[in-house]
């Protein structure tokens, strides 16, 4: 049941405030994060972890990339992210001190399942971040951290993505607390961000009308680029994937700093570029770098669509369109920034008369390797 929406994807985009609230529920209290499923592994085991590898495919891998920044920062454990289908071919170094966190909405993705089995055989501690209850991957893993985002029907993942990021952040905060690597204030600040998140997500969902207008003018675009820095980089990759997947438009995401190492040659007159601008309040250095990136591409004729936090006027002279989002700490920005990108893909798909929920050549769950 699409609940009155034109597509499951539209419905699921609007469900993100509740989805994320459901991921957090029962896992925070009195300013601290405690995930019962992780606690069951025993504090000692969590204290000995010296390396985390996050695995997943597609959107799940981008959620993993975003989660990696936060887990490394909060738990002070080196974290790397690998595509599930690449993982075992590199003969990864795994010990009983390695935690392998798999991210999968369906919990049935064969590439990820095979990677998890490989990790189990090689003695790693396996944690599954999964949305579908009692799927194979969480059943096989040592611990299952369900996202509780509710069923996701559209092939293009939306609410599962924001819920996965949330779950990974909670894991980072839990590990940080158990390992004594974050202070009570940092923990309490993050918990407060989680509490404020649903309302901010609701506001971000309201970017729909502005995005619909933008998409109307851009329906003929042959290629769209997305730029971000830090956690904005995987968010850019996710924006590009959405567009390829459901609007069949060539799209690429780049780390903004990488532009000058090659991709800037792509910038030609009228080339649309979405730029995810970090907050000037909480990330002033990154912000100024991204603003210079905008100036560089604008000078070469790009059509710049800047996604900024409300009140950031620094991009106004250089942006053709500005999408304003509520204020949030750096780690929480991707959860908001991805929403206009999801709407954009949906609107371009609709404008081209395509089936938003069932794109060609794709299945919701990829159960072959
Ligand atoms: O069920 P999973 O999260 O394991 O699926 C992984 C990818 O196949 C999935 O995220 C895919 O990239 C989506 N269709 C993206 O929208």
From TrEMBL:
GO terms for molecular function: carbohydrate derivative binding; glutamine-fructose-6-phosphate transaminase (isomerizing) activity. It is an enzyme of class 2 (transferase). It catalyses: D-fructose 6-phosphate + L-glutamine = D-glucosamine 6-phosphate + L-glutamate. It comes from the Bacteria. The keyword Repeat applies. The keyword Transferase applies. One of its GO terms (cellular component) is cytosol. Its EC number is 2.6.1.16. The active site is at residue 364. It is found in: Cytoplasm. Its main location: cytoplasm. Keywords: Aminotransferase, Cytoplasm, Glutamine amidotransferase, Repeat, Transferase. Residues 42-181, 214-359 form the SIS domain. Catalyzes the first step in hexosamine metabolism, converting fructose-6P into glucosamine-6P using glutamine as a nitrogen source. Homodimer. This is Glutamine--fructose-6-phosphate aminotransferase [isomerizing].
């Amino acid at each position: 049941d699409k609940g009155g929406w034109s597509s499951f994807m539209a419905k699921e985009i609007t469900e993100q405030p509740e989805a994320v609230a459901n991921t957090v529920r029962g896992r925070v209290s009195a300013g601290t994060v405690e995930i019962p499923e992780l606690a069951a592994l025993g504090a000692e085991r969590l204290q000995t972890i010296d390396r985390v590898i996050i695995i997943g495919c597609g959107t799940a891998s981008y959620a993993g990339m975003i989660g990696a920044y936060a887990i490394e920062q909060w738990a002070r454990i080196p974290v790397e992210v690998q595509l599930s289908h690449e993982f075992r071919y590199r003969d990864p170094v795994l010990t009983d001190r390695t935690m392998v966190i798999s991210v999968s909405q369906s919990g049935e993705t064969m590439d990820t399942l095979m990677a998890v089995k490989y990790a189990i055989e090689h003695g790693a501690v396996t944690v599954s971040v999964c949305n579908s209850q009692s799927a194979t991957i969480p059943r096989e893993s040592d611990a299952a951290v369900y996202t509780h985002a509710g069923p996701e029907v559209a092939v293009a993942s939306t609410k599962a993505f924001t819920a996965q990021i949330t779950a990974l952040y909670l894991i980072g905060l839990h590990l940080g607390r158990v390992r004594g690597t974050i202070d009570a204030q940092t923990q309490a600040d993050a918990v407060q961000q989680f509490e404020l998140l649903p309302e901010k997500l609701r506001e971000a969902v309201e970017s729909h009308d502005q995005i619909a207008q933008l998409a109307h003018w851009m329906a003929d675009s042959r290629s769209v680029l997305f730029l971000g820095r830090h956690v904005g980089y995987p968010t850019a990759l996710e924006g590009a994937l959405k567009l390829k997947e459901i609007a069949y438009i060539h799209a690429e995401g780049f780390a903004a700093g990488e532009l000058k190492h090659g991709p800037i040659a792509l910038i030609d007159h009228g080339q649309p570029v979405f730029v995810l601008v970090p907050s000037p309040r909480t990330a002033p250095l990154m912000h100024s770098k991204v603003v210079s990136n905008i100036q560089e591409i604008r000078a070469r004729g790009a059509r710049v669509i800047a996604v900024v936090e409300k009140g950031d006027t620094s991009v106004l002279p250089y942006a053709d369109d500005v999408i304003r989002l509520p204020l949030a700490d750096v780690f929480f920005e991707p959860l908001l920034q991805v929403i206009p990108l999801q709407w954009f893909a949906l609107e371009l798909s609709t404008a081209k008369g395509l089936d938003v929920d069932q794109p060609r050549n794709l299945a919701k769950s990829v159960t072959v390797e």
